[in-house]
Design goal:
The chain has 12 helices and 14 strands. It is of the alpha/beta class and 274 residues long.
Length: 274
């Protein structure tokens, strides 16, 4: 069956290591769209962190955001579905994690909040390529403790870059009994969402909204938080920089993201070659 919905992770997949949309990706998205494929984002980012990408790819209408917590029609701004943490749940998670050495992203409303001092020193925690992005799009709070205590709205997720994998593992153990969905996107980070919120669940809901069976859904990713969407999709693809544990569940392995992997996958989908 031909691919009708192609969902791509952003960081490490659709973007190169400089977090750029290349001309080859732009052309592949245009080709796929012209051939009737709905190209969608399926990312851990919030919509505010996707603005430049959406501007560069006007063919993209739908985005599954915050690792499956919500989806949007990016042309109208309409939220299609959401499954956020309550303020009380987020405060509980935060209380368990605040003592560990990390840069904590608190996805509250349309803004990602960080401790201002740690955000200024983001290079201590985050990969170098991510630092300018974090400092541009995230908001620093003089006291993140005070912000969390006062915030009563929904929280899409908590994401934390840790000083080391060992510190990340200690933090993960501290929230293991709470029953939330916990995953990773990098060598020393954590993402924590409500149970039932992951990229696979988000992509399944988006496909149902669009009336597209899973057999006609392509998912492409590169890291552990993409696992559930790869397991859901009728066609699972990874770029060459994906770890071995993810490659083993993919039916398609393309070149690395810096070698045009996303464009290669999308062109093959548009040509009916997957």
């Amino acid at each position: 069956m031909p691919i009708r919905l192609a969902a791509f992770d952003l960081d490490g997949t659709l973007l190169n290591s400089k977090k750029e949309i290349t001309p080859a990706v732009r052309e592949a998205v245009r080709l796929a769209s012209a051939r009737g494929i709905e190209v969608a984002l399926c990312t851990g980012r919030a919509v505010t962190e996707c603005r430049e990408i959406l501007a560069a790819l006007p063919e993209v209408r739908y985005a599954v955001l915050c690792t499956g917590v919500r989806a949007m029609d990016t042309k109208t701004g309409r939220t299609l579905f959401e499954n956020s943490l309550t303020a009380a749940q987020a405060r509980l998670i935060y209380s368990r994690l605040r003592g560990f050495d990390g840069l904590l992203d608190y996805f509250a409303g349309d803004t990602i909040r960080n401790d201002a001092e740690k955000l200024r020193n983001a290079a201590r925690y985050a990969p170098a390529a991510a630092v300018p992005f974090l400092q541009r799009w995230h908001a620093g709070e003089r006291s993140l403790d005070e912000f969390v205590a006062a915030w009563d709205g929904p929280v899409d997720k908590l994401h934390i870059y840790y000083i080391s994998p060992a510190e990340r593992d200690r933090a993960r153990a501290a929230v293991a009994d709470l029953g939330f969905f916990v995953t990773t996107t990098d060598t020393a980070d954590l993402e924590i969402m409500p149970r039932g919120a992951d990229k696979g669940a988000g992509l399944r809901k988006l496909a149902a909204y669009l009336g597209i069976p899973r057999e006609q859904v392509l998912a492409a990713g590169d890291n552990e938080n993409d696992r559930q969407m790869l397991l859901y999709a009728g066609t699972a693809a990874v770029v060459g920089n994906a770890p071995p544990g993810l490659r083993e569940i993919a039916g398609v392995v393309g070149p690395a993201n810096d070698e045009g992997g996303a464009a290669w996958i999308l062109r093959r989908a548009a040509e009916g070659a997957l």
